[in-house]
Design a protein that fits this description.
By secondary structure, this protein is mostly helical. The protein is built from 8 helices and 3 strands. The radius of gyration is 20 Å and the shape is globular.
Length: about 260
């Protein structure tokens, strides 16, 4: 983003949220690693994939926070910091590259806990990987045209690419619904079936935060301002924590109980 002036609390809020984000990812990394042997071998790959996701997101959020700090300089009035002004272009592009790694892993790990195997596993894995990568790549292209970028802003192309990305997101929702329903049948009678079923609405809500964040420029007007910049970073980070760490913890809770 360019030519943005932030209030002190806006700059610090994003910096703090990004810092909290990579701290949560570090804690999640330790949790998934230390609990892996509490699960039967057939479930452990879910933990392994959560570890991969945690490392990837940890690195992304760490460098995103550093980029945020480097992209703004304090405004001094009488020797007191009264705001921050942009001195560079702060981009969400690196987030998409991180999601290109994380999304296929997040979608795949539930297949192990749902006890899906054989041809069904291969089909779901293929669909998840294809839809996930296409969703991220088309969204990545769209963010280059986001209103308020230094150059190349184009509202029509931004919305068009975002629309294509959303189509693949709907395909993911449909596939995830099938996986959760099938997994619930596979663990019918278990005390964990309720938690496993709860993953469905949790997935719907947490993953929908991403397109909402993408649409912030449309919700607050064509011209990017501090509200859009700040809200995007906060929403994206909330979505990362809830859709990766908390989602992984729910899957691990189910698999750990089933391993007893």
């Amino acid at each position: 983003m360019s030519d943005i002036t932030l209030q002190v609390w806006e700059f610090e809020l994003v910096s703090h949220v990004l810092t909290l984000g990579y701290a949560v990812m570090a804690a999640g990394l330790l949790y998934f690693w230390l609990t892996i042997r509490q699960n039967l071998p057939k479930y452990r790959m879910s933990n392994v994939l959560s570890v991969v996701v945690s490392i990837s997101a940890l690195l992304l959020l760490f460098f995103q926070q550093q980029s945020w700090v480097d992209s703004y300089t304090p405004i001094l009035t009488g020797g007191v910091v009264t705001g921050y002004e942009s001195i560079g272009t702060f981009s969400n592009g690196f987030r998409y590259l991180n999601w290109l790694i994380d999304v296929p892993n997040l979608l795949t790990q539930i297949l192990f806990v749902a006890a899906i195997s054989g041809a069904a596993f291969r089909k779901y894995w293929r669909d998840f990987t294809l839809y996930g990568m296409l969703m991220i790549v088309t969204g990545y292209v769209g963010q280059f045209y986001e209103p308020g970028r230094t150059s190349g802003s184009n509202v029509a192309l931004w919305l068009a690419w975002g629309g294509v990305s959303t189509i693949y997101y709907v395909f993911i929702l449909i596939t995830m619904t099938k996986v959760i329903d099938e997994g619930a049948k596979n663990m019918k009678g278990s005390k964990m079936v309720g938690i496993f079923k709860f993953i469905k609405p949790w997935f719907y809500v947490t993953w929908t935060i991403y397109p909402i964040a993408y649409l912030m420029p449309a919700l607050f007007g064509a011209d990017i301002d501090s509200v859009v910049v700040v809200s995007q970073q906060v929403l994206y980070t909330i979505a990362d924590v809830t859709s990766k760490i908390i989602y992984g913890i729910m899957l691990n809770t189910v698999s750990t109980f089933l391993s007893q």
